[in-house]
């Protein structure tokens, strides 16, 4: 029986975890700071790590809050800063779990379709000038989940200008920004105007998702609201894991580890692009990501994602595509390449092509 090939989750592979270095950091921080980091702490999180993050955003530790992954902080932001019925804009497709959080809170959602990986700036501006103005606009500018797209510089600047004019907040998800395999970094949206942008990210893709260390950078008023909610709800986050990550960084290990990750994932990205070209070119189109964990296939007219029974017969696992869309999505397939070997990628795409075609 053929092995199951899972294209359903964008998770780092076990071989990406720097286990021995983390063991050493854990021993060191418990020995040196155990009395503090094993106790309840500041609801905003471990200050040395917050200071390190704030320095990279030209801010202060008071503008940074740590969480159990960035999604927890987004959930708290929604609960403390938005109300049911508020309008939220999205790229479409977008990260399915963020759609879930906003739907759960009763938000009104509007999506702007990615065409060749880019939203139509004219469509966004026309919507705003017609009186449909969001409280927040959630975007993943760098190597978007699920498409792999990168937002062009001109659209980044235009979104900032529109946020300034229409007074809405941009929620910038930077989960994959550090995993660039080709090209030069573009400015973060928060670099272009920190007044109208909050930035969320985590160490899940850089070090380990299981450690559950995320962060949000925003104005002090927003951070204080999140901190009060955190203190009232769960007192404080995991200082031990935050201290381990800070020690890992301070020992100069992060730079080399990210280079290792880039080498690991770049090979897998090449493999999936080659497999798509060999097997899917007749039935779909895709962009070529410059980084991240994903590429998304837009199926041509007359093709759709195989149903669950068909996938089971071929021992393939996919995420249901409609989860990435406010509406529709049957003609889209998200393909994470990060956790599969090149051989698994090629075999998986070959099986998928047999079903699609």
Summarize the SSE layout with pairings.
Elements: E1 5-6, H1 19-37, H2 47-55, E2 64-67, H3 70-81, E3 87-92, H4 96-104, E4 108-113, H5 121-129, E5 136-139, H6 153-166, E6 169-173, H7 189-192, E7 197-202, E8 214-217, H8 220-234, H9 239-250, H10 254-279, E9 284-286, E10 294-299, H11 308-313, E11 316-317, E12 332-336, H12 342-356
Parallel strand pairs: 1-11, 3-4, 3-5, 5-6, 6-7
Antiparallel strand pairs: 2-8, 7-8, 9-10, 10-12
Helix pairs in contact: 1-9, 3-4, 3-8, 10-12
What does this structure look like?
- The structure is a single chain.
- With 357 residues, this protein is α/β, with parallel strands linked by helices.
- It has 2 domains: 5-16 and 255-356, Aspartate Aminotransferase, domain 1, CATH 3.90.1150.10; 19-250, Aspartate Aminotransferase, domain 2.
- Helices cover 42% and strands 15% of the residues.
- The chain contains 12 helices and 12 strands.
- It has helices at 19-37, 47-55, 70-81, 96-104, 121-129, 153-166, 189-192, 220-234, 239-250, 254-279, 308-313, 342-356; strands spanning 5-6, 64-67, 87-92, 108-113, 136-139, 169-173, 197-202, 214-217, 284-286, 294-299, 316-317, 332-336.
- The protein has a 7-stranded mixed beta sheet with strand order 2-8-7-6-5-3-4, with helices on both faces. Strands 9-10-12 form a 3-stranded antiparallel beta sheet, with no helix packed on it.
- α4 (96-104) links the parallel β3 and β4.
- α3 (70-81) crosses α8 (220-234).
- The longest helix has 26 residues, at 254-279.
- It is globular and about 60 Å long.
């Amino acid at each position: 029986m053929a092995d199951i090939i899972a294209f359903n989750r964008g998770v780092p592979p076990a071989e990406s975890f720097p286990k021995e270095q983390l063991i050493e950091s854990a021993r060191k921080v418990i020995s040196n700071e155990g009395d503090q980091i094993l106790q309840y702490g500041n609801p905003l999180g471990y200050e040395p790590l917050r200071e390190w993050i704030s320095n990279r955003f030209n801010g202060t530790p008071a503008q940074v809050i740590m969480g159990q992954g960035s999604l927890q902080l987004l959930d708290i932001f929604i609960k403390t800063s938005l109300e049911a019925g508020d309008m939220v804009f999205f790229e479409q497709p977008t990260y399915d779990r963020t759609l879930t959080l906003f739907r759960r809170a009763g938000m009104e959602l509007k999506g702007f379709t990615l065409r060749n990986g880019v939203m139509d700036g004219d469509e966004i501006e026309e919507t705003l000038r017609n009186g449909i103005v969001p409280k927040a606009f959630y975007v993943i500018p760098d190597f978007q989940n699920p498409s792999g797209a990168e937002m062009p510089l001109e659209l980044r600047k235009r979104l900032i200008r529109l946020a300034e004019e229409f007074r809405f907040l941009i929620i910038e998800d930077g989960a994959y920004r550090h995993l660039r395999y080709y090209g030069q970094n573009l400015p973060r949206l928060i670099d272009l105007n920190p007044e109208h942008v909050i930035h969320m990210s985590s160490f899940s893709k850089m070090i380990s998702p299981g450690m559950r260390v995320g962060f949000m950078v925003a104005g002090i008023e927003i951070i204080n609201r999140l901190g009060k909610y955190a203190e009232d709800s769960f007192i404080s986050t995991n200082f031990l894991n935050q201290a381990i990550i800070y020690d890992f960084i301070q020992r100069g290990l992060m730079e080399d580890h990210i280079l290792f990750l880039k080498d690991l994932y770049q090979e897998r990205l090449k493999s999936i692009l080659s497999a798509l070209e060999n097997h899917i070119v007749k039935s779909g189109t895709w962009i070529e990501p410059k980084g991240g964990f994903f590429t998304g296939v837009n199926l041509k007219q007359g093709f759709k994602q195989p149903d669950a029974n068909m996938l089971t017969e071929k021992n393939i696992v996919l995420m249901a595509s409609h989860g990435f869309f406010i509406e529709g999505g049957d003609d889209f397939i998200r393909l994470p390449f990060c956790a599969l070997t090149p051989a698994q990628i090629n075999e998986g795409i070959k099986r998928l092509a047999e079903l699609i075609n």
